[in-house]
Write a structure and sequence with these properties.
37% helix, 3-stranded parallel β-sheet, TIM Barrel
Amino acid sequence: MGILMVRMKNLERGIQFAKAHPERIIPYAMIDIDSPTVLEDIKKVHVMGFKGLGELFATNQWNYDDSKYEPIWALAEELGMPVAPHTGIHASGRMSRMQPGYLATVGANHPNLIIHAAHFGNPWYAEAGEVARRNDKLYFDLTGSSLIKKENDPGIWEEYLWWTPHVGKKVAHMPAKSVPAFEKIIFASDEDPEALEENIRRFNKMLDANEIPEETRAKIYGLTMARLLGIEVASK
């Protein structure tokens, strides 16, 4: 089972495909956050049966925490629709509006909004780590070019996801709801189908280098998103 992001022009086709395969597909709608009809679009896709919104892009002159986008986050929170914003480098070359720190504001202002952002803020990894650490319902995936450029240094991610040894301890700078750091990472892929296997290889190499236990890997590969989306998973 996995999340499938459906472009606006393919909404009808996408939701019919998802409804035909409910045991496999979790449909998300790729709304345009700069559309003049964005709020109506969100309400429409919610009624159609889409479960979340993404991938979202701030590619114009407004940051994610700009007041222009506030109604979007408020409505998604109200409807219980998780959002998947892009962070870091965009294919267009734009990136400054999509720094992960802007999502920290969104998460703080909307504590019941589930945010699972794409690309771990590439190249703002340290910022992304702190955003994930401080915001209870904010997660990141690690897709894109990051695992390619860090292929020869796959253990580096522990530098940004550093706080596992401090979870549960009464130290001044740890949030009460802290979880082991790599539990704030979820698996995703933005590769073409023929490159998926190689993407998984790079991802597993990263998990191995950071000595991630099997229990956490299971969460990364699906149990976390199942919990956030209210999907029951049969125990073995």
